[in-house]
Design brief:
By secondary structure, this protein is mainly alpha-helical. The chain has twelve helices and no strands.
Length: 264
């Protein structure tokens, strides 16, 4: 039910896009299929299912890492700084149940709040991971709270309540760090006298090492297994993922050409 004129106008673009898509699909599919075939020879269907799950996790990992790196670059960080930040993120979560993708996202938020790449950033990210492990929450969620404190330059009541509601005894930890009572610390918080450095030091002293310890539990070991699956999937999918942006651009150009032919 399409008019001959429209059909004729679309014909060339349709063929061009079809050939491009078929070629790309066969090339990528063939290479990935070949790689997977070599990886699972003799290991059966179960291994194939595990690799499929790994690829899914790997794609999510690659997407999150790419987004974090793009955000870091967009905030004015040089390529060298981005590389250093990613190294800090990796070091902070190594041996824990948290993945590099989550750490990278947290690093982007933290650096945007004024934390310098290097030893300072790695220390903050480690504390975020440890605090998240105690709170039983994601590193990204805990990173939002730490990022808020860092951006303000001081601990305020709403951030403290978010931590307290997640089972983190902030007042007691700050009290031990400063040698003051909980009441005195509460008064200091209300006056804005607890800066980020003091807050981070208190958290580090109170929860240090919790993330790695949590990784030794059954739940933590399971999460570590999932993270390992993500790393495997990212390695397998990486070469194809790196080419995806260019492939999408090619398809976009073909669609735009088709759109131009449709308008008349």
């Amino acid at each position: 039910k399409i008019t001959p004129e429209i059909k004729k106008a679309l014909g060339a673009s349709e063929q061009e896009a079809g050939k491009s898509g078929d070629s790309m699909g066969k090339t990528m599919g063939g290479r990935l299929g070949g790689a997977l075939k070599k990886s699972v020879v003799g290991t059966g269907v179960a291994a194939g299912g595990l690799l499929a799950a790994s690829l899914t996790k790997g794609m999510g990992r690659l997407t999150a890492i790419e987004a974090a790196e793009s955000k870091l670059s967009g905030l004015g960080n040089s390529a060298a700084d981005v590389s250093s930040i990613m190294e800090n993120a990796n070091a902070a979560v190594k041996g824990t149940a948290y993945g590099l993708d989550e750490a990278a996202t947290t690093a982007a938020m933290t650096v945007a709040s004024g934390i310098k790449p290097g030893q300072e950033l790695e220390g903050v990210l480690t504390t975020v991971a440890d605090t998240a492990a105690i709170a039983g929450t994601s590193m990204s969620e805990m990173g939002n709270i730490f990022g808020s404190v860092a951006a303000r330059g001081k601990l305020q009541g709403d951030d403290m309540m978010q931590l307290t509601s997640r089972g983190i005894p902030v007042l007691q930890m700050l009290g031990e760090e400063l040698g003051k009572t909980s009441e005195e610390v509460s008064d200091m918080v209300s006056k804005g006298e607890i800066d980020f450095k003091t807050f981070e030091a208190a958290m580090s002293s109170g929860v240090g090492g919790a993330a790695k310890t949590a990784g030794e539990t059954t739940q933590g070991a399971f999460a570590n297994m999932g993270a390992a699956a993500g790393r495997l999937g990212a390695t397998l999918a990486g070469p194809f993922y790196d080419q995806a942006a260019g492939a999408f651009t090619g398809v976009t150009d073909a669609l735009d050409a088709m759109n131009g032919r449709v308008k008349p």
